[in-house]
User: Fold this.
Amino acid sequence: MSILKVAKLGNPILLKKATEVEDFSSDSLKKTIYDMSETMLDYGGIGLAAPQVHISKRIIIIRNPEVDEDSNVEITPVINPKFTPLTDETEDSWEGCLSIPGMQGLVKRFKNIKYDGYDLEGKKIQNEVSGLYARVIQHEIDHLEGILYTARLAHKDAFGFEKEILDFWKKNIVSKVNE
Ligand code: NI
Assistant:
C-alpha cells in the first residue's frame, strides 16, 4: 500500500466529472481502494474520493464517523455511488476537505439519504444513513461530479481558516449566518 498525493484546490482534476468503474475484477481497483484508505487515514480524513488522488473514477471511501476509536476503524468503499434524499430535511454544518486543507465552510446537506453502489467484489450495496455519515457521502459524491463544498456554501461568508471559523463563527453560528 502507498500514501497517495492529494490534489489541492486549483487542480483541474477536482473540477472534472469522473467516469464509472466497469471492470470490477482488476487488481488495480483493489490497490486504488487500499491506497485511498491508507491516504485518508494518514491525512486524518473521514472520506475520500478518487479524483482527489488524481484518479478520475467514480470511487469513494467513507470512514464510519460513529466508530471513532483508532483501534476499530471501519472504512466502506462505494463504487459508482448514487444517493437519494429520504426527506426534504436539510442541515447546515461545517465541512472541511483534504483538498482544501486548513479551511472550513458551512454547507447545507440533506439530513437523511439512501445511497447505493457496488463493493470491491462488484456486489450491489445499499444503505440508509443520516447526519454526519449522510453528509460525508454527499460531499464525496460531489467530488465525482467535480463539485467542491465551496460551491455549496450555506452562506457566502461562511468560509475561512479553521481557527478563524472557530473563534468567530462556531460560537454563534445562527445569528451570524442570519445577518
Ligand atoms: Ni473533500
Remarks:
- The longest helix spans residues 27-43.
- Residues 59 and 79 are 5 Å apart (CA to CA).
- DSSP finds four helices and eight strands in the chain.
